[in-house]
Design brief:
By secondary structure, the chain is α+β, with helices and mostly antiparallel strands. It has helices spanning 23-39, 73-76, 94-100, 107-112, 121-132, 141-144, 155-161, 164-169, 217-222, 232-238; strands spanning 2-5, 10-16, 52-55, 63-68, 83-86, 114-115, 137-139, 173-177, 195-201, 207-211, 241-245, 250-254, 257-260, 265-266. The chain has 10 helices and 14 strands. It has a 10-stranded mixed beta sheet with strand order 6-4-3-7-5-8-11-12-13-14, with helices on both faces. Strands 1-2-9-10 form a 4-stranded antiparallel beta sheet, with no helix packed on it. The longest helix has 17 residues, at 23-39. The protein starts with a strand and ends with a strand.
């Protein structure tokens, strides 16, 4: 960081908004949750569990488990919910669907154990954020719904599709991969990292923050690739709290408004 003294006797700190590899970035996400839990009513609903969730394990583990929640009631009894991922699939090939999705062929194996290395980047990023928030359970459609292959019956998908209102409406939080056009892109990498200025008057304890780049929620989120999906309106409207991950900024949206990571509250 670069500090210098201005003619008005103010202290100026030139820095960058923390990158997604920086612990301060995830500290901000956790602070958003603490503030919402403390001051808002966004998370005050009865606990709900989807038919299946992914147990993400510890921070350094590459092993995951697919859990049938009815069979894991004892383990889930003290948990405070799950996160959910809203994302674009893109146009995966049949081979990619076989590899990444939960299917009838790999279902029993995934109930025992499977590897993060067998997942696309967007799913890996969702697992990382879930762990950074101190949570252990994650819902992703491609993993938690048995996906039909070719001419197979899609009975599980039809049954689970009817539960989407509860899955997103009662998740602890939804992660929206707003800029990613497919599940292979991920959502934690940035095109650039905006800079900001911290300015403090000589006799004041208060800091002011001025960013060198203007946030644009309408273009970053509303016009993002994810909002071209037919299902996204339901996922976004029903979710009580959403973190929108874009190529420029990360945004928090809940019942009390929208905030950008540059510490601005947006007018909508």
């Amino acid at each position: 960081m670069n500090f210098f003294r201005t003619s008005q006797q103010s202290c100026i700190n030139l820095s960058e908004i923390p990158s997604t590899e920086n612990s301060l970035y995830f500290a901000l996400l956790r602070q958003w949750f603490r503030e919402c839990d403390k001051s808002h009513r966004c998370n005050r609903k009865a606990l709900f569990w989807p038919t299946r969730v992914i147990f993400v394990g510890g921070p350094d583990s590459i092993e995951l488990e697919l859990w049938e929640t009815k069979l894991k009631q004892r383990e889930l009894s003290n948990a405070d919910g799950y996160t959910a991922l809203s994302h674009c699939w893109g146009n995966p090939t049949d081979e990619e669907k076989q590899r990444f999705c939960t299917t009838r062929e790999n279902y029993e194996r995934r109930l025992k154990r499977f590897s993060m290395n067998d997942l696309p980047k967007t799913f890996k990023d969702a697992i990382r954020v879930t762990r950074e928030l101190g949570k252990q359970y994650l819902w992703i459609d491609a993993l938690c719904i048995i996906q039909p292959m070719q001419e197979e019956e899609d009975s599980d998908w039809k049954r689970e599709a009817g539960r989407m209102a509860d899955v997103f409406g009662r998740a602890y939080c939804t992660f929206a991969a707003s800029s990613a056009k497919s599940w292979k892109e991920g959502f934690l990498e940035r095109e650039s990292t905006p800079c900001y200025v911290q300015a403090q008057q000589k006799y004041s304890r208060r800091w002011k923050y001025i960013c060198d780049d203007v946030n644009d929620f309408e273009n970053d989120v509303d016009a993002g690739p994810i909002n071209q999906r037919a299902w996204v309106l339901q996922e976004r409207v029903l979710s009580r709290r959403t973190i929108h991950f874009t190529k420029r900024y990360t945004y928090w949206e809940c019942g009390q408004g929208v905030w950008c990571e540059n510490l601005k509250r947006l007018q909508r």
